[in-house]
Design a protein that fits this description.
Shape: globular
CATH topology: Heme Oxygenase, Chain A
InterPro entries: Haem_Oase-like_multi-hlx (IPR016084), PqqC (IPR011845), PqqC-like (IPR039068), Thiaminase-2/PQQC (IPR004305)
CATH superfamily: Heme oxygenase-like
Family: Belongs to the PqqC family.
Number of strands: 0
CATH class: Mainly Alpha
Low-confidence stretches: none
Organism: Aureimonas fodinaquatilis
Helix content: 55-70%
Pfam family, one: TENA_THI-4
Number of domains: 1
Number of helices: 11
Mean pLDDT: 95
Structural class: mainly alpha
Distance between the termini: 68 Å
Oligomer: single chain
Protein name: Pyrroloquinoline-quinone synthase
Length: 249
């Protein structure tokens, strides 16, 4: 029988998945961080990434509905507030819309979902369905890409501010709180997985859930790269440079 991993071994195995598969390794992200994309390509990234951001509180609501104790629900509810806001303080979704405006897109166009690449929609919806249909342990484990995001966020903000004159710190306000939020979220999710993966097959499920989530993020960048960097063919009805631009008064 396959032996159980210790908590340290499970943590190391999860971090190794990130070292090999996290989407900061994708060529599109390297181009983005190094200032090698055009303004239009950055707009395509902001527009498509919004769809992913908009579905995060949906998937977190699905997880919240499956948690059995007030303590767990309170902890997970905080994630939803982080993205949806509380009605007074803007959340991550509102800040991402502001990011889109900052790179020149119209708010209504961003929110409409028009122009989203089919592969973006497919990958993001697959993530929501995974969280809905798989075990609660796998759903929680799929959020563990947040283990790797704080460092990448720092690289992204530095690179974009340095290389793109049309981007300001205010444009990237979404990322101000995310390293701290992601650290708190991943610490909780990691401990949950350590505590609840009590058999080798459950530990394997945790690892596979993280691999799946890395694939979801990678697939979104594949779609951007092959549609806007080296486009074999931009899909019908997908965003094209000049679409949905903010009208400057």
């Amino acid at each position: 029988m396959k032996p159980m991993l210790t908590p340290a071994e499970l943590t190391d195995a999860l971090r190794q998945i990130g070292a090999e598969r996290y989407h900061n390794l994708h060529p599109f992200h390297r181009l983005l961080h190094n200032g090698q994309l055009s303004r239009e390509q950055v707009q395509a990234w902001a527009l498509n990434r919004y769809y992913y951001q908009s579905r995060i509180p949906v998937k977190d609501s699905l997880i919240l509905s499956r948690l059995e104790t007030p303590e767990l629900r309170r902890e997970w509810r905080r994630r939803i507030v982080d993205h949806d806001g509380d009605g007074q303080t803007p959340g991550g979704i509102e800040k991402w819309i502001a990011l889109g405006r900052g790179v020149g897109l119209d708010s209504d166009y961003i929110v409409s979902g028009k122009g989203i690449l089919p592969a973006t929609r497919f990958a993001v919806d697959a993530y929501v369905h995974f969280v809905r249909d798989r075990t609660l342990l796998e759903a929680v484990a799929s959020s563990l890409t947040e283990l790797f995001s704080p460092t990448v966020i720092g690289e992204r903000v530095r690179g974009m501010l340095e290389h793109y004159p049309f981007i300001t710190r205010e444009t990237l306000a979404y990322f101000d709180k995310r390293p701290v939020q992601a650290k708190a979220d991943s610490d909780f999710a990691l401990q949950y997985c350590i505590d609840h993966a009590r058999r080798p097959e459950e530990q394997d499920a945790v690892l596979n859930a993280l691999r799946f989530k890395c694939d979801v993020l990678w697939a979104q960048l594949d779609a951007l790269y092959f549609s806007y960097v080296e486009p074999a063919m931009t899909p019908p009805e997908a965003w094209r440079p000049g679409d949905g631009l903010e009208v400057r008064q």
